[in-house]
Amino acid sequence: MKKGIVLAALWSAALSFAQGSPDYGGGLKFNLNTEGSKYMRFIAWNQIWARSSELNPGTMIGEQGATKQEDIGLRRLRILAYAQISPRYMIVTHIGINNQTFINGGAAGSQNTGGYGAGKKPGLFFHDAWNEYAVVLPKENKPFSLSVGAGLHYYMGLSRMTMSSTLNYMTIDAPIFNWPLIENSDQFARQMGIFVKGKYNRLEYRMSINKPFATNVTPVNVTDPNVAVAVDNNNNARWSKAGYFEYQFFDKESNLLPFKVGTYLGTKKMFNIGAGFYTAPSGTKTSVNGVTERHDINLFSGDVFLDLPVGDKAKKAAITAYSVLYDYDFGPNYLRNIGIMNEGVADNTYTGTRALAGPGNLQPMVGSGTIWYTQAGYLIPNKDEKPKVRVQPFAAYTYKDFDALKKASSQFDIGTNFFLDGHHAKITAQYSTRPVYTAVDKIDSYKGEILVQLQIYL
């Protein structure tokens, strides 16, 4: 019976990671005993980006003013290993690097040119490291399962995309605001704590209690409380709480690992509705007339995910759609500007009107307010039984309405996936826009970015 449970879990995990590739199977798996009840599995992936980006006004790269930039960079280089020591006990370890470009992304303390230049030799770090114990094992005739784990983990609640897998996005990447604490009070979307996960029939649940990483940004003192700006300052952080609950109407998803799939490419029939939260007491701080005030972080979301085969089954066409609404409260006028692999710094010689967000590809990304994000794509039908390339055009829309800005923004992504071997070998091309605010009530323009990604994972 135990062996059957283990094999079922392995098969479920293999399906979760092998979307759209019938030849991949279970991947790099090594049995530690003859029955296969003890094993270790490795997953490795590289995501390489080539970009052509319009830059915000007032940008300098390498001591030269710049309005446009072309480059190639390493978005993610990762290795994940998990070991099933027994049917109940699992260990997960995940290491890697992110966001290395020709001019930045090197290890901590690297600078200037030479062997350890600012863009050279990035330091590996742990993304995940946790131990997990299955209190109630999943069984075919039992509706309830329960596992408990602890460590540096990804069970951060809030939304499906907050716990998304980076291996199988439909768009080229996540929109980033799905990780609202990114690299502030978390470690690359993770915190250290205790989590529980499991299922009851078609309801999947995930909850955690965590110790946020310490933040110590000093708030700017103001005399008018209406213009006070909350900043990340939790010092001796109090425990955060997170949860996500999802009802799966059609096929059930594997929850062996926390990573939610972006698109199954028609290999599953999915319709899920979910809701989640993240709360952290006294997570931010403001200062008015020299008096500081602490504010709780309260984040909520609701989302829906659809992935359905359509038309003639032999042609394997599919539609994928995802929509999420975030309601974020970090305290008054909280706003954070983020740019992925941003290479720009401020050009002090620039005399024009600068972007409020700053140089390079920075944009208002996370803040107190609401964000609505929707994506949809269509996997074009096969003409051959085993086509050399599968094509999936997609589009995404983002609406942001932040308290700190008096004007809401809309931005778009449009692109196409070219699947050479499902998600295991694919090329993604995407064009994205972002708003350039020059005042809190003025969007001066929208800048564009062309991205091409080559992804390989085993």
Helix content range: under 10%
Total number of beta strands: 24
Strand content: over 45%
Q: Which regions have little confidence, pLDDT < 50, spanning 5+ residues?
A: 4-17
Number of helices: 1
CATH topology group: Porin
What is Rg?
23 Å
User: CATH homologous superfamily?
Assistant: Porin
User: What is the averaged pLDDT score?
Assistant: 93
Report the sheet with the most strands, covering strand number, pairing sense and barrel closure: 16 strands, antiparallel, barrel
Q: How would you spell out the order of helices and strands?
A: HEEEEEEEEEEEEEEEEEEEEEEEE
Architecture, CATH level 2? Beta Barrel
Envelope shape: globular
Whole-number tally of structural domains: 1
Head-to-tail CA distance between termini: 30 Å
Strand order of the largest sheet: 2-5-6-7-8-9-10-13-14-15-16-20-21-22-23-24
Task: Label the structural class.
Answer: mainly beta
The top level CATH class name? Mainly Beta
Keywords: Signal
Protein name: Short chain amide porin
Signal peptide: 1-18
Organism: Flavobacterium fontis
Account of the 3D structure:
The protein is mainly beta and 458 residues long. The chain has one domain: Porin, CATH 2.40.160. It is 3% helix and 52% strand. It is built from one helix and 24 strands. It has a 16-stranded antiparallel beta barrel. A three-stranded antiparallel sheet has the order 4-3-18, with no helix packed on it. A two-stranded antiparallel sheet has the order 17-19. Strand 3 (59-61) and strand 4 (64-65) form a beta hairpin. The longest helix is centred in the first third of the chain and has 16 residues, at 2-17. It is globular and about 65 Å long.
